[in-house]
Specification:
By secondary structure, the chain is α+β, with helices and mostly antiparallel strands. It is 38% helix and 17% strand. The strands form five sheets. The protein has a seven-stranded mixed beta sheet. It has a two-stranded parallel ribbon with strand order 1-4. It has a two-stranded antiparallel sheet with strand order 2-3. α4 packs across α9, α6 crosses α7 and α8 crosses α11.
Length: 337
């Protein structure tokens, strides 16, 4: 091996010919002691990238690429960071009284900590964060990818159509539950071969009819919230923090229905948006490197945005309790298969 780089580091090297990595990405390469916030000992025979803060100037874009892409010659290339940490920065999520769900293709649920805390049950990630902070992460698995897959399976041309169908069904989906992807992922036993399922009580006789397309669609949205409730329970066990709001960012934060279901299932206020939080975080790093902001804090203030708010519906919260218990029981059954 001539040299080692993260994927963003490799891309930056292609742009400007220089290589570096920030602590959030260095941890993924086992180069960074997360708890101590210091470099690990690495094999001296391999050319490892320098560890530098995100937003440092790495170099300038190579002239042929600048000409090919229509960029100004001398355009600055900045040291970046991991996508999850950038999403929190881009959304302005610094409040320790809020958890953050980055609902993109996958869905990490995060709690910002002033001190490193490890899950005694070893189910969670501990990640470095900006500003001498840490992130405790309950990963909820595939979410946005399954959202798109479900829309395509139901032959809808837009997510709004899927959302309207899901909103037409009642809380609890008449006993139906979705187990397609979203779940609190236990790092001790990642059963990637377990079956996915949409479970419906077809054997029941009801006066209102059997579950149908609306229940199928809504069950997926409810499963996202049930996974978040399970993940939040794990975070509470490892790093208790009292009552917390939830910041919902990433592509699925465009969904008002998901925001409301989360609020009622968690029994907590949900602040929704922005959908492009990771891109905003990357832009903030670039703006500091370009001299448009003194530091990431100043860049964050210039990118600050509000969000839509959702509060729990007490009737729905009560109705979700049995549905959540049923979902957890079925999750455990699938995990054993």
């Amino acid at each position: 091996i001539a040299s080692v780089a993260s994927l963003p580091g490799w891309y930056a090297h292609r742009l400007c010919g220089e290589a570096a990595i920030d602590p959030t990405l260095a941890a993924d390469l086992m180069m960074w002691d997360v708890a101590a916030r210091t470099p690990c000992e690495v094999d001296p025979r391999i050319a490892w990238p320098d560890v530098r803060p995100a937003s440092d100037v790495l170099g300038t874009i190579r002239a042929p690429l600048a000409d090919e892409w229509g960029l100004r010659r001398g355009c600055v290339v900045a040291v970046g960071a991991a996508d999850t940490q950038l999403a929190l920065r881009g959304a302005g999520c610094t409040d320790r009284s809020s958890d953050v769900l980055v609902a993109g293709s996958s869905a990490p649920l995060l709690r910002i900590l002033d001190h490193p805390a490890r899950d005694p049950a070893r189910r969670l990630w501990l990640d470095p964060h900006f500003d001498d902070a840490w992130l405790l992460e309950a990963n909820l698995g595939e979410m946005g990818t399954l959202h798109r897959w479900l829309r395509e399976c139901l032959a809808f041309s837009s997510f709004d159509q899927l959302e309207a169908l899901a909103a037409s069904a009642k809380v609890g989906c008449r006993g139906a539950s979705s187990h397609l992807g979203p779940r609190a992922m236990d790092l001790r036993a990642l059963n990637t071969a377990r079956p996915a399922a949409i479970l419906m009580p077809f054997g029941e006789t009801t006066v209102t009819g059997a579950p149908g397309r609306g229940e199928l669609a809504r069950a997926f949205f409810e499963s996202c919230a049930y996974a978040a409730r399970s993940g939040r329970a794990w975070l509470d066990a490892a790093a208790p923090g009292g009552e917390r709001t939830l910041r919902l960012v990433g592509g699925m934060s465009r969904s008002p229905l998901l925001g409301q279901i989360l609020a009622s299932v968690l029994g907590a206020e949900v602040i929704r948006g922005p959908a492009d939080a990771t891109a905003r975080g990357a832009a903030m790093c670039a703006s500091v490197a370009a001299g448009l902001a003194a530091d990431l804090g100043e860049a964050g203030r210039s990118h600050a945005r509000g969000g839509a708010r959702h509060v729990p519906d007490e009737d729905d919260t009560e109705g979700y309790q049995d549905a959540y218990d049923r979902w957890v029981e079925r999750e455990e059954q699938l995990e054993e298969m």
